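request received
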Amino acid sequence: MRKLITFNSISLDGFFTDARGDMSWAHAGSDDPEFAAFVAGNAGSGGELLFGRVTYQMMAGYWPSPAALASAPEVARGMNALPKVVFSRTLPKAEWQNTRLVKEDLVGEVKKLKAGSGPGLVLMGSGTVIAQLTEARLVDEYQVVLCPVVLGGGRTFFEKNQLGLTLVHTRVFKNGKVLLHYQPQASS
Amino acid sequence: MRKLITFNSISLDGFFTDARGDMSWAHAGSDDPEFAAFVAGNAGSGGELLFGRVTYQMMAGYWPSPAALASAPEVARGMNALPKVVFSRTLPKAEWQNTRLVKEDLVGEVKKLKAGSGPGLVLMGSGTVIAQLTEARLVDEYQVVLCPVVLGGGRTFFEKNQLGLTLVHTRVFKNGKVLLHYQPQASS
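response:
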């Protein structure tokens, strides 16, 4: 059984994108060496990445670019090399290297992935996908980086779901970001 | 100059009340002795409490009651004894002991309170009031208890404000709640 983790940066008011769909505020504080090492370590730690279309297109447009390779070479190499799955009914094909496009049956496909063997599954961004997998109770752990910022609007990746959580890990960075790992409670 | 602190319990999706206006989910985990001691210590540490009408009416209806005195005697005695201000244009009078009703000019009144002498000012709940005082840049510190729960809807106390923050204190409780103190950044 493979574990499915979600990984998101969120604001103190609970949003993972701002009102215009922008996520660049989440890069603030990257000059904290400890935080930068944490991000690079994540990208180099293996796993298979899952995305919805919107997050996929944002990342596929950035990480293979020379700008990404220049500014964050370790993260870029990791993101490009890792196996990836994008879930979308509308995307005609997935051009980012090592990416498989899945057009139908999100929940069924994720159940199959989890039942198989292989590295851990990490779902990044992708509010709509997280909300559906949360509803299907397929997420084993929610990892969030709580950023010291208030956005005043945007999208929450839980959408309408209600959920009791158990906090299993915390780490505070000097840049004011707080890493929090939560597991969903069985009863909720 | 008196310091103005806001104090709120929030969910991981950023809400301080759920979609029905309920805040009782924030009492979960009160059986953690360390957390209970923290709450009682807060209520006994002095200060002057500020509220908007909705939070005031909720608290004025609970803390003077025999039920509150039986279940959380220290907190109830503290809440009843502390000096309090409620801001409301519509409330005819404030009946909870040691409470002053202010009907007009929220921002001007808070400026006056801050410029005077006395104990620290603590604003609890009261999303609309927090949003207005945030906009007027009168809040010196936002203290939140991040609760291990997803509500799926409700109110965020920052409303439409955008704000850069500096994290100045954290404390993790065994019940999975995380206390976070943030100061607004001057530039934001």
